[in-house]
Design a protein that fits this description.
about 525 residues; alpha+beta; six-stranded mixed sheet; 15 strands; about 40% helix; elongated
Length: about 525
């Protein structure tokens, strides 16, 4: 995987993956390098398997082609920026050669029913360098569909040509298929690597995205605390309405954050690195890459030796960095089972990704969700109004104590709630969670004041906004149906604290009036 990422290869066809699950540590490593994978695996027996790896910047969709008994395959459609598509398949022959030719003929027929631009790569286990009945029959099949075979040199350690690259006209550049020597780094591999260039415009090697960030770590803590303390004291003495106080709190605390940690914008590669990558390992990889280029250019023994030395050093350094990373995080999450399971899921490739309807216009998708959830809430409210005529027997006031108002909170109660609460923030909060934790003592009085203002006025105005994330209710449901989603709200921190205080008051009242 490191070789594929270092060479910036956009698409790779792999045979004999030996994968036994859809997702595991191997697929997690692939994704950590900025790639995705579609693969066929053997779940019950060891060996075999085929996969297509592709850079996450590419638009690739897995397609179903009926499987044949004599070979394993995986097929995808690569969507190009000019609205064209290329059908790509990875093949590994496992069955009898006597029936393989007919099966492969049927397979290509199914491919052609979906596209006339084909790319087929794989280990066919046919000696294409030797003239035979099988070789001639096989050649006749792929040539009858107008496919060209671009591998010309032996690809197996025994000296035979087994690994082939087929493509429709003008897909693969002529004389651009390179057969690399079998690498000593992989002693169990007896096949060469094949590199070739696609004659396709618009294949992005990488994509970029704009991010916004703040250098919170470089804040002068003393000056920040001084400004924050003065501002919060001024807000507490404000006798305005609850909504006005919340607006002032958000605006003025945001201004302090902008003063001490202004927001910056930066264009970065939209490709994740492995989480254990650090500056030392990246520098070592860069030196190794330069040494490899130098050796390929000079072909001297000294340059080859230096490149192999750096290659071994990088491999050993990667192992060390991985062990340190996992050890550090296992210790970090030792006291939180939930966090530990979430961390384990990251390197077992079990992280749940956000599933959305298939729509290239993200803003349109957002607007559709907004309209759908707004309409759904309005229908629920109308159903309440239609049932307003229902009467129930209500006990007399003598039988229960009415809860007409809430007891005000105290700073001590707020501190206890904060001890029991995992402080988290969202875009609606004026401060990130890390600064809230570090300045918790300064926030307690203003939180107490804001909560009491809400309890006294009976108002949550200013806290009614939420960041909504639509989550698919079940993996088997159609992601293009909006009714199959449920909204998950991310609320401002002040609102969460207010809810916890109200919950305590309700529990106390219900306990006393069982």
């Amino acid at each position: 995987m490191d070789y594929i990422a270092t060479q910036d290869i956009p698409i790779a066809f792999i045979q004999e993956t030996w994968l036994k699950e859809v997702k595991n540590h191997t697929t997690a490593v692939i994704k950590a390098h900025g790639y995705n994978i579609h693969h066929y695996h053997r779940s019950s027996i060891t060996g075999g398997g085929v996969a297509i790896l592709y850079k996450s910047s590419l638009k690739v969709v897995k397609i179903h082609i009926p499987s044949e008994p004599t070979f394993e395959s995986i097929s995808v459609k690569i969507l190009l920026p000019d609205h064209r598509s290329l059908l790509a398949s990875c093949i590994y022959r496992t069955g009898a050669i006597s029936t393989f030719v007919d099966d492969f003929d049927e397979f290509i027929t199914n491919l052609y029913s979906k596209s006339d631009k084909l790319l087929i790569c794989g280990d066919f286990n046919i000696h294409m360098d030797e003239i035979s009945k099988t070789q001639k029959a096989f050649e006749q099949v792929f040539s009858s569909y107008g496919l060209c075979q671009f591998s010309k040199k032996p690809t197996h350690k025994s000296g035979h040509l087994l690994d082939l690259v087929f493509a429709s006209p003008n897909i693969v550049k002529k004389n651009q298929v390179t057969v690399l020597p079998i690498s000593p780094d992989y002693p169990t591999c007896d096949h060469s690597r094949l590199l070739f260039t696609l004659n396709v415009k618009g294949m992005p090697s990488q994509t970029k995205k704009m991010i916004k960030f703040r250098n919170v770590e470089n804040i002068n803590a003393d000056m920040f605390r001084s400004d924050l303390s003065n501002t919060l004291s001024s807000i507490s003495s404000d006798q305005s309405s609850f909504e006005q106080k919340i607006m002032r709190y958000n605006n003025e605390v945001s201004e302090i954050l902008d003063k001490h940690a202004p927001e910056y914008s930066k264009m970065i590669r939209d490709e994740p690195d492995s989480k254990w990558f650090d500056s030392a390992y990246k520098a070592a990889r860069s030196r190794r890459r330069k040494a490899e280029k130098t050796w390929k250019k000079t072909q001297t023994e000294n340059d080859r030796y230096y490149f192999e030395y750096l290659r071994t050093y990088c491999n050993n350094l990667a192992d060390t960095k991985k062990k340190e990373f996992f050890k550090r995080h296992f210790i970090k999450y030792n006291y939180s089972q939930k966090s530990l399971y979430q961390f384990v899921d990251t390197f077992l490739d079990n992280e749940k990704s956000l599933v959305l309807p298939s729509n290239e216009d993200l803003q349109k998708t957002v607007d559709e969700f907004n309209q759908f959830f707004t309409t759904k809430i309005e229908r629920i409210r109308q159903s309440f109004r239609s049932e307003s005529g229902i009467t129930q027997d209500t006990p007399s006031s003598a039988e229960f104590n009415e809860l007409s108002d809430f007891d005000l909170t105290t700073e001590d109660e707020i501190r206890e709630i904060l001890k029991e609460t995992d402080i988290k923030s969202c875009d609606l909060d004026p401060l990130p969670a890390c600064l809230m934790r570090e300045n918790k003592d300064l926030l307690v009085p203003i939180l107490c004041d804001l909560v009491n203002a809400s309890l006294t006025s009976g108002s949550m105005d200013g806290l009614k906004s939420a960041n909504l994330t639509p989550l698919l209710k079940g993996n088997s449901l159609d992601p293009n149906e909006l009714k199959n989603y449920r909204p998950v709200s991310n609320l401002a921190f002040v609102g969460k604290i207010t809810e916890k205080v109200v919950l305590k008051r309700l529990n106390t009242h219900l306990t006393k009036n069982k």
